[in-house]
Amino acid sequence: MTINTQKSTSVTDAVLTRITTRAFLDKPVPGDVLSDIFETARRAPSGGNLQPWNVHVLTGGTLDGFRTEVIGKLMKGESEQDTYPAYPSPLWEPMRTWRYKLGEDMYGLLGIPKDDKRARLMQVGQNFMFFGAPVGILITIDKRMDAPQFMDIGIYLQTLMLLARERGLHTAPQGAWRAFPDTVKKHTKHSDEQHVLVGMSMGYADPDKPVNDLVSDRADLEALVKFYD
Ligand SMILES: Cc1cc2nc3c(=O)[nH]c(=O)nc-3n(C[C@H](O)[C@H](O)[C@H](O)COP(=O)(O)O)c2cc1C
Question: Which CATH architecture has domain 11-83+128-212?
Fold first, then answer.
């Protein structure tokens, strides 16, 4: 399936055409489009109306300086202490298989075999280029916040993602940014009370890149939702 780059005109269309986009065009997002998305996303709900998100939007030279520094660290094999692990370890079924299948489907589309560890690592490294997107978003949260506020951030992320689709844009939510909290802090200058929870790439999808043809699987409705009447 080819990625849909049209502007969504319904919520359903935005939900169905949103995919995690892992290759973007080198085309800036106009400033008014960007500010409109973040202005509208202020209406995202949160428990107790805490609005626990602190949002850092990087574009232009600021974004380039940030990603150049992160890639430089990666190339030198430098790492930082993750703020949170991405998943429980060990992961159990059926989640373990979902995760494995996602990776295999993606590397399959890219023609990267299982034993080509270097090519797989290079693809993971694309995270730290924000997949070439012209907008890099980093969300920090007060360290005292917990699971209920993490839910709020998830809702905020999806709000951004759907608003982006309405404007013909695509996104990639990225937990990967928890791996570079020190460099994030250096560039966002967030306070010591906060730490990085998640990031997001945003921009115009490159429809010619095979990685954007990835349509991830979903569990059957019956396995996920029980209706009680
Ligand atoms: C909170 C969150 C963090 C994610 N982090 C990453 C990430 O760091 N790198 C990545 O390539 N995809 C990341 N993803 C994308 C998921 O892999 C993707 O949402 C899932 O496989 C479903 O595919 P879809 O978004 O294309 O529908 C993340 C998604 C979410 C919701």
Answer: 3-Layer(aba) Sandwich (3.40)
